[in-house]
Structure formats: structure tokens, C-alpha cells
Amino acid sequence: MSASSPLTARPLAATLLLGALLLIAWLAWGAPAADDGAERVMWLGGERFEIELATTPSSRQRGLMHRSPLADDQGMLFVYPDEAPRSFWMKNVSFAIDILYLDADWRVVDRHVAVPPCRQDPCPGYPSHGPARYVLELPAGTAGRLALEPGTRLEPPTKKAPD
What we know:
Blueprint lengths: L5 H24 L9 E6 L2 E8 L2 H6 L11 E11 L2 E2 L8 E6 L5 E8 L10 E2 L4 E8 L2 H4 L12 E2 L4
Parallel strand pairs: 2-3
Antiparallel strand pairs: 1-2, 1-9, 3-8, 4-7, 5-6, 5-8
């Protein structure tokens, strides 16, 4: 009997298939769910920002809904598994924000500044004019103050140093 008999090939093939399916599922969902809600540090225009990650479909859908306004040095980063046109709205968000759409290379591909809260349905959407992999929400006025224009490359977030 050879080393690759049908009896040993089937479990190996099943294991490889399962591994491939798990890898595809992980890639489809983007960043690991363990990172969801984690805080990271981003340096924008020489200033330090505390950024909360939204990496799962439910946290990306919830975003900044029903929250207190962001502090001047806070933001939320939405992480998607692929680049695609994105659109955000301000339903149940009670404060104005800047929305930056970023490609896979962390370049700003589009932005909407001082987007007001939605006070009545239907809420308008604020689409990107190009594919985006990441979406960064910051306090209103931050993008202009730090000159975060389309074409600007941002540095990816890093883990916070332990306190």
C-alpha cells in the first residue's frame, strides 16, 4: 500500500478543505472579531488620536449611534475585508463628524466634512466617490484643521502602549 492511499488521502483532503474554508471566512469578515471595539492609536497631522475599531458587521452597522460626542482626540475606524464603494449616514448620531474614506494603502479617497446629525427619516447617505477599505470618523472640523485631503496618506493605527 502506498503512502497516499485513498484511506489516508480523504482525511488530508478534508482537513485542507476545512482549513481553506476557515481562511476564506476569516478574510471575508476582515479583521478578527477579537479586535472589535479595541482601541488603537493613530497619528494624524502630528496629533495623537485614540481610535476605536469597528471590525464586525454589527459594530460597523452600529458605529457611533446612541453615543456621547467624540472628544477632540477620538475617532472610530471601520475596517472592511475589501475595497468597495461605501456610504454612511447619521441615523441616531447626535453630533456632527468628518467622514474620511481610505483605500487599502491608507490614502484618503474621499471625505465629507461636518456631516450633521440626522434629525428625521429618511436620513441622507454620504457616499464615497471611489472604493474604500477603511472609513475613519472624526470630530467635525478635524479633517480641515489637519489638512486631511483626498490623496493624503495616513499611517495605520498601532496598538496602545500598556498604561
